[in-house]
Amino acid sequence: MHSKSRQILLRTPNSRRLQTLTFDPSQPLSLRDLKLSLIPDHGNPDTFYFTANGKLLVDDSIPVGSPQVPALSTLTLRHRLRGGGGDGGATGAESRDCYLKMYAEKKPDKIDPNEQRLSKWVNCALSYETLRQPCVMDRLGNVFNKEALVEALIGKKLPKAFNHIRGLKDMIDVKLEPIPGGESNNAWFQCPITGLEFNGTYKFFALRKCGHVLSAKALKEVKSKACLVCYREFEERDKVVINGSEEEVDALRERMEEERARVVKDKKQRKERSGDDVEKVAAKTEKLNGKIESVGSTNNKRFKAAAVAPANATKEVYASIFTSSKKKSDFRETYSCRSLPLGRN
Fold first, then answer.
1. Closest C-alpha among 126, 195, 165 to residue 260
2. Per-residue pLDDT tens for 158-176?
3. Where would one find coiled-coil regions in this protein (predicted)?
4. How far apart are CA 130 and CA 108, in angstroms?
5. Measured between alpha carbons, how far is 198 from 211 in angstroms, rounded to an integer?
6. Residue 70 near residue 130, CB atoms below 8 Å
């Protein structure tokens, strides 16, 4: 069965621009093979090393597309620092190899801060794939590819770091402005007002009500209580900083917990009010049913004038005021008409 081609983002020392490398998972490509294809013919492959999303890769036998180098990750080829010499017989290459192994063993999670910063702004926070529309953001300012986040929610595969995302209500659809012509300065998106690149160099905010992503500079220079793109009004608490600092994320988390507590409280109050209203309606209904039954029992009794005749009046004479004085047997039908009293049939 033919495997689908996949891609990674590649950066080399000779180019600051990200390149796209397409590879076939069915044909393994090791980092060393990739390194040999990128360096000049006279270059020494041992003087270069790779980082994946900012994390150091020591073993050149790792294949591209493996868990250490997943598809759509950012792979960077770097020069190794030159070592010393004449220090007791150790060569520069040996010193560098020993240093890198020691570095990887003692500090396996050490990450280049610049690579880490860039990865958060160009890749999905969950799948590490390149950000592409449609995108969503959680309440803490992390940006995701919507498809990847929805699939993780459905499959219940969200990491513990994102356990604050409980459903679609915790997602905010964001509208990122693409850079005309594609990638620029390691960024694919920009501020629609100032044109600043969405790559971590500048602070950006997302507006929860409309989803537009604007730079802090635009919001500061243009004083407005409405979105600068769609003109929808927003409040200060509707601004969510994207990929903020630890202090900013802690503030967003505190706001999120307050909002959730307020929602629970409001729901409880509405339930209590609803219960009181139901009791009142039930009481009114019961009272109304009692009146209807009372009226119905009264109406079921046939009215007889003789029953309410005055004390000194003869019942038959008093009743004749309201009824015909003739009996039905006194009426007879002739050839020309029916001799019936009015109201009888």
1. 165
2. 888 898 998 888 899 999 9
3. 242-273
4. 24
5. 15
6. no
